[in-house]
């Protein structure tokens, strides 16, 4: 017996150095299952991305058309779209926005749009465009026959009339307290159809104010929810996320833009085209108080009058409780007769062909309260009353003012003051118009006197020619000269007709006879 325990487990010899341990049988299926899982996960991730990359252009086109239609309340159509996800660039081809309610009337069109996207914001569900460049955008501004100003060519559809049953005591419109909501709506639509450009701007401003009020209520509700979250004693961490609007265009540039102004209310009126227009906008978003004021810069000219140039630059802040506008507008040689459709009933004076204006207008307001002091230079004035029954304009006699404007032809207005509310502005004219009225009246009176004098001279000359160079003719000429206060007149032989010839009658008798003869020749005048 060696004393060794036969029941002792034999010792395993260690593997030689450098050799790999052999896998056990249970580890191999586990690794296969992990490999399959990762392969499936990779396929689920890569396959959608691959499909999205293959059909990225079609997907981008559908998203832009749907989003644009919802944003503009119109039908947005594209001929094509190209998306470069690595560069973050989206190119849209042949953009067209139409209104289906008006027979697909074209509201806006552009040849191409190139957008540089912020990919980090896009992954968070926010569309942030660093730069948007539009090539040859086109739009049409139309004054309809009812006086309304609309985008596109066709007027908005008129709702079908609703026949109301007759009620005792007069129509509901005569008793506002009995009017239904539908009747109020139709009455407001009837008033809106009679508006002109100024009233249209007022209505747009009302919409902006209402939209700002709604956004302010939303912000207040979000603020209350955040305050409630801070007061939550659960001890959970709260993170404040930076506010980013759903759509934010940091810079938009339009090249070779064209705006067509059409007057359908006047038969035979030619359209006016604002061409070669450069437009730059910055900080355009659905949340203007977060992104800051909107920067605006515009420059263009009119095709029908190349010397007519318009330039505007400034800022527009739409923060709730602090709306502010500081835009400087300059224009040279604007054709007033071609711009008449935009103002129409807002001005009691109609400008005829040839009338132009140079202006500098500091378009500034705060909380829709205005204080403007424009400078105007009106040249080659050809004006008439829009309504012959108008009696006064700015507190002055309407007919005398129109006559004065016709005579003066050129006027510089540097003392105009427009103040008050945007919806109910007030105008102070200073003494320029009063001086214009006086100067115009003097010129008009002098012109009328010269015309009457020319008529009297012509008739007197015809009478003298008929009488011939006789003694009676010389007496008539002498009497005519005394009547007209122009001294003596030359007779046919060159002698002074006022010199007393030999054997002539006394001056008083000659004058009385001349007056009688002249009255007869002039038809008793």
Assembly type of the shown chains?
single chain
* Percent strand: 25-35%
Q: What composes the largest sheet?
A: 18 strands, mixed
The overall average pLDDT, rounded, is 73
Radius of gyration from the alpha-carbon trace, in angstroms: 42 Å
Please work out how many helical segments DSSP would assign.
11
- Strands, count: 22
Distance between the termini: 175 Å
Derived from helix and strand composition plus strand pairing, the structural class reads alpha+beta
Shape: elongated
Helix content: 25-40%
Can you tell me the residue ranges where pLDDT is under 50 for at least 5 consecutive residues? 1-7, 162-179, 191-197, 486-505, 521-525
Question: What does it look like?
Answer:
This protein starts with 26 loop residues before the first helix and ends with a helix. Strand 8 and strand 9 form a beta hairpin. The protein has eleven helices and 22 strands. With 525 residues, it is an alpha+beta fold. The N terminus and C terminus are likely disordered. The chain has an 18-stranded mixed sheet that branches. Strands 13-17 form a two-stranded antiparallel ribbon. The protein has a two-stranded antiparallel ribbon with strand order 18-19. The longest helix has 36 residues. Helix 9 runs antiparallel to helix 10 and helix 10 crosses helix 11.
């Amino acid at each position: 017996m060696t004393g060794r325990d036969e029941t002792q487990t034999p010792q395993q010899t260690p593997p030689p150095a450098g050799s790999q341990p052999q896998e056990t049988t249970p580890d191999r299926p586990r690794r296969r299952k992990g490999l399959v899982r990762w392969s499936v996960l990779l396929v689920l991730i890569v396959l959608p991305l691959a499909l999205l990359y293959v059909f990225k252009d079609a997907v981008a086109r559908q998203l832009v058309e749907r989003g644009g239609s919802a944003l503009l309340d119109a039908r947005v159509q594209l001929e094509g779209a190209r998306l470069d996800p690595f560069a973050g660039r989206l190119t849209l081809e042949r953009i067209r926005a139409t209104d289906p309610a008006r027979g697909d009337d074209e509201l806006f069109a552009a040849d191409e749009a190139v957008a540089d996207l912020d990919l980090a914001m896009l992954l968070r569900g926010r569309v942030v465009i660093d730069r948007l460049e539009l090539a040859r955008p086109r739009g049409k501004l139309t004054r309809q026959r009812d006086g309304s100003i609309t985008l596109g060519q066709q007027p908005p559809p008129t709702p079908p009339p609703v026949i109301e049953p007759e009620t005792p005591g007069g129509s509901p419109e005569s008793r506002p307290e009995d009017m239904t909501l539908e009747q109020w709506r139709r009455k407001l639509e009837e008033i809106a159809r009679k508006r002109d450009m100024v009233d249209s701007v007022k209505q747009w401003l009302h919409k902006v104010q209402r939209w700002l009020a709604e956004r302010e209520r939303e912000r207040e509700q979000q603020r209350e929810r955040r305050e409630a979250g801070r007061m939550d004693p659960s001890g959970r961490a709260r993170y404040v996320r930076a506010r980013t609007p759903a759509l934010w265009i940091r810079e938009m540039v339009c090249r070779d833009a064209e705006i067509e102004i059409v007057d359908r209310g006047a038969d035979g009126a030619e359209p006016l085209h604002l061409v070669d227009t450069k437009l730059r906008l910055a900080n355009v978003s659905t949340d203007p108080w977060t992104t800051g004021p909107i920067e605006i810069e515009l420059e263009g000219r009119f095709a029908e009058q190349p010397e007519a140039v318009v330039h505007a630059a400034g800022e527009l802040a739409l923060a709730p409780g602090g709306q502010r506008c500081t835009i400087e507008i300059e224009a040279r040689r604007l054709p007033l007769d071609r711009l008449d459709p935009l103002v129409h009933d807002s001005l009691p004076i109609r400008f005829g062909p040839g009338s132009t204006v140079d202006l500098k207008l500091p378009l500034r307001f705060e909380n829709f309260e205005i204080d403007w002091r424009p400078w105007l230079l009106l040249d080659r004035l050809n004006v008439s009353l829009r309504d012959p029954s108008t009696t006064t304009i700015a507190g002055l006699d309407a007919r005398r003012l129109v006559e004065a404007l016709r005579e003066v032809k050129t006027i510089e207005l540097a003392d105009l003051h427009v103040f008050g509310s945007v919806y109910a502005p007030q105008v102070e004219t200073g003494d320029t118009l009063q001086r214009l009225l006086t100067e115009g009246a003097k010129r008009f009176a002098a012109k009328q006197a010269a015309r009457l004098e020319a008529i009297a001279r012509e008739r007197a000359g015809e009478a003298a020619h008929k009488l011939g160079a006789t003694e009676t003719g010389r007496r008539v000429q002498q009497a005519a000269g005394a009547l007209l206060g122009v001294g003596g007149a030359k007779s046919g032989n060159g002698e002074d007709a006022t010199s007393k010839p030999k054997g002539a009658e006394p001056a008083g008798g000659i004058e009385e006879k001349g007056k009688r003869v002249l009255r007869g020749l002039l038809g008793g005048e």
